[in-house]
Amino acid sequence: MGKFSNIASLVKEQETAAVAAIEQNGKVTAKTLDEAIAGVPILEIPVSKLHRCRWQPAGRHSESELETFGQSVDLIGITDPIVVRPHPEISGEYEILNGDKRWIVAQRKKFSVILARIVEANDEVAHAIFAAGLMHSTKPTELQETDIVLSHLSMRLNLSIDHVASLIHRGYEESQGKLTNNVVSGLIWSQLMAEYNSVTNLALGTFCKHRLSWLRMPPEILAAVREGKILPNNAKAVARLKDESQRQMLLQRAIAENLSVREIGDCVKAVKPKKPVENNPVARIKQIYQRVRSSQTAWQDARKRQKLEKLLGQIEDLIEDNPPLS
After folding, report:
1. Three-class SS of residue 22?
2. Which of 19, 71, 308, 311 has its CA 20 to 30 A from that of 100?
């Protein structure tokens, strides 16, 4: 397949192969994957016979997104067909390649059937359709790249995404000498690295430290990034809040007001609990110094500034070897 400097190229290459495969099966002529799929007949299939795609990222859709889409379905129904393939392991049933949100809402609304296009697809073609559905833009985000790389490795090695992520993390830790009990066999690691290097030039250390960290993000933040509601760097700033209720409130505000990373950081500082002042006088002085130094209002407010200068003068008098007589 060759080596790709960005994941968009990988998806494009897979799409080209998928178009050819769908044309051969459906006897349609198309230039793009969307056109090829559009040429596949629309049928009604039972909702109960559908299964989530094995590569679908966990927590891709937030509750708010599902509720909003559900309200739209109440008015006009589900008009856009989902894309499925015959399930590779369960006879007579189907795996969803594009349309996971529509399927979830159809289940909640207790629909018995749903419109679908059934594509005869091997794993390579199926992954092309799935990966194309993950991408919202020509240049994928960090999170989209992570999802596509992991799903591609999952497809090629026939392992779950969680297993692939765990193998990459543990194998990298071993290579850095942080693990010494050989938890990843040499054969599996060489296969994994061969596939990894075939799809991206991104250094493995960077992928482990900065991309896999997305999987540890709070689910509401992960969903918001996947939905394109908030930029990745802004989302990381929100995630610094550990309190769940405060974090969710800040996330909603950041989305509604389109806050910048700096504005989000200010909000995080404002709601984070202040560190308790230590009893040790020297430690207290250091803490107070840092707070005074970072405080803008203390120096911008003329009255506060005057009081601070007076207090500083008193402190200087106290630490003089020969303090002045009162």
Report:
1. helix
2. 19
* One domain for residues 24 and 118: yes
Residues 6+ apart with CB under 8 A from 210: 142
Quick: pLDDT tens for 81-110.
999 999 999 999 999 999 999 999 999 999
User: Can you give the residue range of the structural domain that contains 206?
Assistant: 142-215
Residue 71 lies in a domain: yes
| 64 Cβ neighbours under 8 A, 6+ residues apart | none
The answer to pTM > 0.70 is no
Domain assignment present for 322: no
What is the average pLDDT score of the chain?
A: 81
CA distance linking residue 312 with residue 306, whole number of Å: 10
Rounded to a whole number of angstroms, the distance between the first and last alpha carbons of the chain is 86
Residue with tokens 């559908």: 50
Residue 211 has pLDDT above 70, yes or no: yes
Same domain, 128 and 31: yes
> CA triplet 313, 314, 316: central angle to 5 degrees?
65
Beta pairing partners, 82: 116
Whether residue 225 lies inside any domain: the answer is: no
DSSP 278: P
- Calpha distance 208→59 (Å, rounded): 20
Residue 222 is assigned to a structural domain of this protein: no
Q: What's CA 265's distance to the chain center, in Å?
A: 20
